[in-house]
């Protein structure tokens, strides 16, 4: 008996090796086998499949996919103050791969965890910034690292109003989150992208959207 396959894993999941076996949308792909390599909090799978190339020949391929679920992120902006509200938190993967201190400036974000993207982004905005948002604007959906990670990220934007908060930080302490907010003039945030001070992909994408098609496009 294997946890995550025959018996529940730590998150109560079974049948994790069935994911992706019944895909039929691409006639050039035949899924042959799915192996679960790890199912701790997220799921690492190795899929064996046959792929028909443009010249007609078939080849046997293997790929590993890291399944952490889909997520949502949001850019909070205030056009009267010409600011954006971002977060700062420690990111170990960035730290071990060359970031000076691992403290990344980002848009508020989180996994869907079974909620709709709209429900999730209301939750994450409140948890990470202390702000209750209205109806968010849907911007786009993006596969952030399609070569190995299955995650599809839902991008949103919404205005925020300045407020006084007694909180020293945000996030879910039980999950090890220690998040502070960073309010920046929009022009300064763009300059930080150019200098590398903001190095998070989702944040850069939303800031560029705000400049090209969003609330600051006529600036």
Short description:
The protein is α+β, with helices and mostly antiparallel strands and 219 residues long.
Account of the 3D structure:
- The structure is a single chain.
- The protein has helices at 92-96, 117-129, 186-195, 201-212; strands at 29-38, 43-52, 58-67, 71-78, 83-90, 103-106, 108-111, 137-143, 152-159, 180-185.
- The termini are far apart.
- The model has no long low-confidence stretch (mean pLDDT 93).
- It has four helices and ten strands.
- The strands form two sheets. Strands 4, 5, 6, 7, 8, 9 and 10 form a seven-stranded mixed sheet that branches.
- The chain has 219 residues and is of the alpha+beta class.
- The radius of gyration is 20 Å and the shape is globular.
Question: Could you list some keywords that capture this structure?
Answer:
219 residues; alpha+beta; seven-stranded mixed beta sheet; 10 strands; 18% helix
């Amino acid at each position: 008996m294997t946890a995550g396959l025959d018996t529940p894993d730590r998150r109560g999941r079974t049948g994790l090796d069935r994911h992706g076996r019944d895909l039929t949308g691409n006639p050039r792909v035949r899924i042959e086998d799915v192996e679960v390599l790890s199912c701790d909090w997220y799921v690492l799978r190795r899929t064996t499949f046959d792929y028909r190339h443009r010249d007609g020949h078939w080849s046997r391929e293997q790929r590993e996919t890291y399944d952490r679920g889909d997520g949502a992120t949001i850019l909070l902006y205030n056009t009267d103050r010409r600011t954006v509200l971002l977060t700062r938190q420690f990111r170990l993967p960035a730290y071990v791969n060359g970031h000076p201190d691992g403290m990344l400036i980002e848009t508020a974000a989180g996994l869907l965890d079974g909620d709709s993207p709209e429900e999730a982004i209301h939750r994450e905005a409140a948890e990470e910034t202390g702000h209750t948002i209205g109806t968010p604007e849907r911007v786009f959906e993006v596969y952030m690292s399609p070569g190995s990670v299955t995650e599809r990220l839902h991008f949103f934007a919404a205005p925020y109003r300045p407020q006084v908060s007694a909180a020293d930080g945000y996030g879910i302490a039980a999950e090890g989150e220690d998040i502070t907010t960073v309010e920046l003039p929009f022009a300064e945030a763009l300059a930080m992208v150019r200098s590398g001070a903001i190095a998070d992909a989702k944040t850069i994408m939303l800031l560029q959207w705000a400049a090209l098609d969003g609330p600051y496009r006529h600036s």
